[in-house]
């Protein structure tokens, strides 16, 4: 059973560029959440997608956008990159209509460096 | 902001029990306590969660005080591979919909030493 996968593993961009990160959820999951983790900090919630719609959003600017595909995979797009966008980007999957015992499963992350 | 308070770091000897405390004095009746850990350069990993009763699984035990204002995660026999950052998270359960997303603090960095 494949877990959550993310690509690429590492990425280097320059300020002002745009980036797209990809995530495939754990088999059977239909919901994808994205988190940003700066060095030395805990992950911060960006947004969540279910049924190809953004369902929840954290305190992130509109430069951060996403998409979910019919196969439940997801993309995170960041426009006009800033140095402060350098971070580990984590994807987590779950069932939307989950039982009380459900949890989120995280992928290994994509390390983005903005120069 | 995170609704939990944890010590920034702790040490534990290999083979001994590791007891990680967490304060969540403003927890609401519909909020669970979750624990995740993050080994260096990996994604967070679910450990355990509970509402008000003590819980145990193959990884750890969770002890929640009667007033629910604090909890302790117990790793009964810590190994070197348990070295990680441990996050205590209070999470609302939305009955009938998404369970809400995780609000992480800075966690406790546990170092297990030989």
Provide keyphrases for this structure.
heterodimer, A: 115 residues, mainly beta, seven-stranded mixed sheet, four-stranded antiparallel sheet, 11 strands, 0% helix, globular, B: 114 residues, 9 strands
Verbal overview:
The complex is a heterodimer of chains A (115) and B (114). Chain A is mainly β. Chain A contains no helices and 11 strands. Chain A has strands at 5-7, 10-13, 19-24, 31-37, 44-50, 53-57, 64-68, 74-78, 87-94, 105-106, 110-114. In chain A, the strands form 2 sheets. In chain A, strands 2, 4, 5, 6, 9, 10 and 11 form a 7-stranded mixed sheet that branches. A 4-stranded antiparallel sheet of chain A has the order 1-3-8-7, with no helix packed on it. The radius of gyration of chain A is 14 Å and the shape is globular. By secondary structure, chain B is mainly β. Helices cover 0% and strands 46% of the residues of chain B. Chain B contains no helices and 9 strands. In chain B, the strands form 2 sheets. Chain B has a 5-stranded mixed sheet with strand order 1-9-8-3-4, with no helix packed on it. Chain B has a 4-stranded antiparallel sheet with strand order 2-7-6-5, with no helix packed on it. In chain B, strand 6 and strand 7 (70-75) form a beta hairpin. Chain B is globular. Chain B starts with 8 loop residues before the first strand and ends with a strand. The A-B interface holds A 4, 31, 33, 35, 40-45, 48, 50, 55-56, 58, 90, 92, 94, 96-98, 100-109 and B 2, 32, 34, 41-46, 49, 85, 87, 93, 96-107.
In short:
The complex is a heterodimer of chains A (115) and B (114). With 115 residues, chain A is an all-beta fold.
What is this structure's SSE topology?
The complex is a heterodimer of chains A (about 120) and B (about 110).
Chain A: E1 5-7, E2 10-13, E3 19-24, E4 31-37, E5 44-50, E6 53-57, E7 64-68, E8 74-78, E9 87-94, E10 105-106, E11 110-114
Chain B: E1 9-13, E2 18-23, E3 31-38, E4 45-50, E5 55-56, E6 61-64, E7 70-75, E8 84-92, E9 108-113
């Amino acid at each position: 059973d494949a877990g959550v996968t993310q690509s690429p593993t590492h990425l280097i961009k320059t300020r002002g560029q745009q980036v797209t990160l990809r995530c495939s959820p754990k088999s059977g999951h239909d919901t994808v959440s994205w988190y940003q983790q700066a060095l030395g900090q805990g992950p911060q919630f960006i947004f969540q997608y279910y049924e190809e719609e953004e369902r929840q959003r954290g305190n992130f600017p509109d430069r951060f956008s996403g998409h979910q595909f019919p196969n439940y995979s997801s993309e995170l797009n960041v426009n006009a990159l800033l140095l402060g966008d350098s971070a580990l980007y984590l994807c987590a999957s779950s069932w939307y209509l989950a039982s009380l015992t459900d949890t989120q499963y995280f992928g290994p992350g994509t390390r983005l460096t903005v120069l | 902001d995170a609704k939990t308070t944890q010590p920034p770091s702790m040490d534990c000897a290999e083979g001994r029990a590791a007891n990680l405390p967490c304060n969540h004095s403003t927890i609401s009746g519909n909020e669970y306590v979750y624990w995740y850990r993050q080994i260096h350069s990996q994604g967070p990993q679910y450990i355990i969660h509970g509402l008000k009763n003590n819980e145990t699984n193959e990884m750890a035990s969770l002890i929640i005080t009667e007033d629910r204002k604090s909890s302790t995660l117990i790793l009964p026999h810590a190994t070197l591979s348990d070295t990680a950052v441990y996050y205590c998270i209070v999470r609302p359960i939305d009955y009938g919909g998404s369970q809400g997303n995780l609000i992480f603090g800075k966690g406790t960095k546990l170092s297990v030493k030989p």
